[in-house]
Amino acid sequence: MSQGTERKRKHRYLSPGQKLLLVVVLVVLFAVSSTVFLDLSRMDEQERPPADGSGWDDSVMAYVIAKEGETTAPFYNEGFAVVDQCARGTDVELESWEPYLTESNEEYYHVYLNGQFGYLRCENVTDDRIEILQENRIYARCSVHLLQNPGEPQLGSLVDKGSLLRLTGYDYFREDGSVNMYQVKLGDEFGWIKSEYVALSFDDAMSNWTNDSYSYNQHVDRGDHYGAGNAADLDYFPHEKGDFADMGNVMPESVYAMYISADDTSPSTVEQYLEAARGTAVNAFVVTLMDNQGLAYASPWLAGYSIGSEQYTCFNQPEDFAQSINMLKQAGYYVIARISAFDDVTLAKLHPEWSISDSNGEALMVDDSYWPSPYCRDVWQLKVGLAVEAVEEFGFNEVQFDYVRFPHFIPDTADLKNTLNESKAQALQRFLTYACDVLHSHGVYVSSTMFCETANDYVAPCGQYWPALSTVVDVICGQPYPKDFGSYWKDGRRYRQYEHPYETLNNFALHVVDRQKECSSPAIVRTWIQTQDVYSYRYEEMAIMKQIVALYDADITGGYMLWHPQGNLYVLDDIGTSIDHDYTDLYEKAKAENKLLSAYMNIPTANT
């Protein structure tokens, strides 16, 4: 029972003057003592709605509270039978603070909630917002970073799994009664953490996710074959996926996307892309903001890091870039911002202290490039901060992080800046968890690309492990470019996989289906499709369509994105009519006739 409620109930027999005096004294005392119990100075205070609708003349407003460890309280009808559950934090109208005493000596308040009259137990009602939150300490159930402020890219400390966190506040309750983010204290540091990452007991925090169709042990058994991290050390609890339809950000059921490189982002060139897409099934564009080619626009956020046109090639001023993105959005397209996370030559050379470096502290070339270290939190903040700026200033629907991986063949003498003693796989999953935590609060989806090797059932040498990353992000984007698959001997002859776009993509897709089954909260699968020629093998219209239908034949229906490093205008003639088809609609029709999409569309699956 709340202190505020107890106060009103005990003194309902006093005279009016006594009541007024005592209430004033207790309110003052409680206001002082409550600041010791819980600091909620950073909460979003909300005005209570007026007490109307019930027809009661002198009703009062209060809040629903729940028992510790629960997020709802039972709602009773006039016969005191439970008919619903009320989320904690819900505003509720009381006829008065005079409780109703049942024949079994149970006390209830007569309430009006969501257009219904009923009853709540007295212990489930309070007039004090502080008392809604019953828990006062929590434990981290996975290793995750605190945020200094919700929705902002500034990072706090890494919290180890099982760490005790002192609760100091919260931002708001969701519709189901759960807290969105807790404000906590770790040592002397205050920060914010999502409720999904905490438990109420140490034992629960140290447990690992499992259910009837999913077992943590399958990941434990995979171990660490290539030195990139043990699969057992990653987080497999379900992660909340973005759903921003009520904010007007609706992701198409299947995305059919063309790609615009950073140097193609002027308004005049974007108009050419729009002309190419008109009358086709294309419903989205992927636009590069930052990669080794430069910056799509001169970013004020990066200018704060002394990064501008003197360091990167900046292809537009912000106002021109804003015009380009607005043209795409006004035409009704879903627009995705692409950011290269950890393959960034310019940033690595500008900040060798943040980068994979040699013994002298100079940025080290690995895999024909220079790499900011995926372990470095300064790099994380720079990249996610750029994403926040792009979303807020230009209205992107989604942010896609490319090159979320380590390079291959790193020399043993290299300094990777691994100050937190993490595995590669841990660093990548934690980066994407952080990116989702920040960007989801801005109402956008988060996607990440995956190297083709990650369709296999091990932690890849680059640190990517499909089940761990798919569990975190909203969309996972494989890059099974046939040019990246090796050749081998088959039936007495050299089998070059790039000459078999259907078979190569279909085999990849079937492995992806297996990986997705190993996720507690699998992402949507949307795949990058190759449009580049390989030697004498032309990737024209039919080769592109073979890759796409190969995915649908494996029941992967999230859509495609057409990749060419120079942008799709460069190969527009080769793309041809491959972008004219609504593949998902055709897939459904093929299923109705018990056919594969390739057969339904009469697309040959053998080598052309």
Describe the structure concisely for a colleague.
This protein is an alpha/beta fold and 608 residues long. It folds into 3 domains: 130 residues, SH3 Domains (SH3 type barrels, Roll); 71 residues, SH3 Domains (SH3 type barrels, Roll), CATH 2.30.30; 356 residues, Glycosidases (TIM Barrel).
3D architecture notes:
It is a single chain. The chain has 608 residues and is an alpha/beta fold. It folds into 3 domains: 3-132, Roll (SH3 type barrels), CATH 2.30.30.40; 137-207, SH3 Domains (SH3 type barrels, Roll), CATH 2.30.30.40; 245-600, Glycosidases (TIM Barrel). The protein has 16 helices and 29 strands. The strands form 7 sheets. Strands 16, 17, 18, 19, 22, 23, 24, 27, 28 and 29 form a 10-stranded mixed sheet that branches. Strands 1, 4, 5, 6, 7 and 8 form a 6-stranded antiparallel sheet that branches. Helix 10 links the parallel strand 22 (398-402) and strand 23 (445-451). Helix 5 packs parallel to helix 7 (318-330), helix 9 packs parallel to helix 10 (424-440) and helix 12 (501-516) packs parallel to helix 13 (541-552). The termini are far apart. Mean pLDDT is 90; it is low at 1-15 and 21-51.
Please describe the structure with a list of short key phrases separated by commas or semicolons:
disordered N terminus; SH3 type barrels; 3 domains; TIM Barrel; alpha/beta; 29 strands; 26% helix; 6-stranded antiparallel β-sheet; 608 residues
